Amino acid sequence: MKIVVLGGAGKMGVLAVEDLVINERVDEVVLADRDMEMSGAVASHLDTPKLSIREVDLNDHEALVELLRDADACVNATVYYTNLKVMNACLEALTHYVDMGGLFHGTREQLKLHDQFKEAGISAVLGMGSAPGAPNILARYAADRLDSIEYIRIYDGVKPPPADSMKFTYAVPTIIDELTLSPMVYRDGEFISCLPMSEMEDYPFTPPLGTLPMHLSLHSEVATLPVSFKDKGVQECFFKINYWGMAKETVEKVRVLADFGFDSPEPVQVKGAEILPRDFMIAMMGDFVPTSLEFLTAPPNKPGDWAKEIVSEVKGTEEGQPVIIRMGMLALKGALPTGVLPARSAVWQALGRVPTGVYPPELAFDPQPFLKELEERNIQTRITVTRGL
Predict the structure, then answer these.
(1) CATH fold of the domain at 134-334+380-387
(2) Which of 40, 107, 334, 351 has a CA-to-CA distance to 181 between 20 and 30 Å?
(3) Distance between CA 243 and CA 299 in Å, rounded?
């Protein structure tokens, strides 16, 4: 089995590469990236003959197709703007495809390729990481046990860093979009847009996280879950997070820059030169993102130092009685689920365990065996069921 990881030298991509090279079902892993220096450093650290590196330019369609042609599956770990471009290359190469999310609107466009992927006899899984990804599968597990569903509420909680931390937790362009674009929620049978970072609430997570302030954010789960479980009468679905795992003070600084227009994609003239404010801001923030090797080499932290729990809380009925099923996925090492879930998805796809066509995670996987497999990487799922008397 051969798997290509596009953006494999990036912050999340390296975690997918790591999981694939230690997977006994995988024979060959290709780390494809434009950053050859970091690619070489990752390959040197992992030190395995199963891994090779390739330089790739996603704007070179023919070269990308050639890279993918003899691969069983492709993990797209690049920024979500490239999703459609890579999907089209996979269609031509007849290679299974998985990505880490399309930020709602992108995902909806990607789903339109379902018939083409089905006709080609290959599969695509959209939004497969810690979130989206994990919440979708958790929600599916709960939905399978309920006769009707009132709501699906998703909470992505990360233990906050110190107030003086200036670190970004993942791709700066994606965080800026999640911070500034209008979140979409599903209420009373329709999708509506809300204000960024609105509808604050305190939510209790599993220790060592405790109670955290949560707010709305634009995300892909909301684009698919209400549709996937429409026949069960879903009335509400939203996604909330606590400042994207960053210090509240850092998020507030970025919001100020956005208020002054530094997130604008429109060109401006500066001393005779034309620049894009957004590109300039992203470039300046690049030094505040941990390197890929920092993500890869971080040891499991001591209890209480770092934690992340992804929760899908589903309320509905079972045999006429109200039930709330809380599914919580807990990880105690960095962004591990974000890399492991798409890596395992690619393996399942290569093995033919995902139907042909384009699917969100909740329709692509049998939840119980998939969640069980994640326990190999110490990614645990806890289930709490609350019933009326």
Answers:
(1) Dihydrodipicolinate Reductase; domain 2 (3.30.360)
(2) 334
(3) 24
